[in-house]
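User: Just a sanity check before I run the rest of the batch. Below are the structure tokens for the first item. I only need the designed sequence back.
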């Protein structure tokens, strides 16, 4: 684990190396991402595919140390107030595990809110998550990715729901409008 280096707002440019500033972890990225929204010409601390990023400064104890995993393949710069964690597990599994209520409670433990809340590398190293076999990690990620797609991807979840409701409508329409023929 290591801390990123400061990238000031005026150092974010249209071109250059992809980078992440700590606020973007709260506002832009979910559990995982593959493309950085910012770029810079300056930076020194890098991260790459599969690395976990923690925002160690925030406005609330409840959200401190929000984390996400980078699934892209570019080398990127980590801004200040970001901690980068390298590991040898399934990256998405670690990201999902670090987003649970249990992990968040551990991240928030002992933090005091003043104007700004801070965490640290030693505090992050204290977080304990279950680490099953790689096969089990992959199975869990597959299930969670499918569920995430069904609940967030409008092209998958919504059309499937519309189709199911259409079939349900047709079934009940046919039942309601089916009459027995009267014999003469």
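Assistant: Here's the designed sequence for the first item:
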């Amino acid at each position: 684990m290591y801390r990123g280096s400061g990238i000031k707002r005026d150092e974010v440019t249209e071109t250059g190396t992809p980078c992440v500033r700590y606020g973007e972890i709260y506002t832009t990225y979910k559990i995982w991402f593959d493309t950085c929204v910012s770029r810079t010409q300056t930076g020194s601390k890098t991260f790459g595919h599969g690395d976990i990023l923690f925002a160690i400064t925030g406005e609330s104890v409840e959200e401190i140390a929000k984390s996400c995993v980078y699934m892209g393949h570019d080398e990127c710069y980590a801004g200040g107030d970001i901690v980068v964690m390298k590991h040898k597990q399934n990256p998405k599994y670690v990201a999902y595990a670090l987003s649970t209520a249990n992990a968040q409670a551990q991240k928030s433990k002992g933090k005091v809110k003043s104007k700004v809340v801070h965490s640290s590398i030693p505090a992050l190293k204290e977080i304990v998550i279950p680490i099953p076999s790689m096969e089990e990690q992959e199975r869990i990620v597959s299930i969670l990715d499918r569920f995430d797609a069904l609940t967030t991807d409008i092209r998958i979840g919504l059309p499937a729901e519309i189709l199911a409701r259409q079939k349900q409508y047709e079934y009940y329409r046919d039942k309601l409008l089916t009459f027995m023929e009267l014999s003469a």
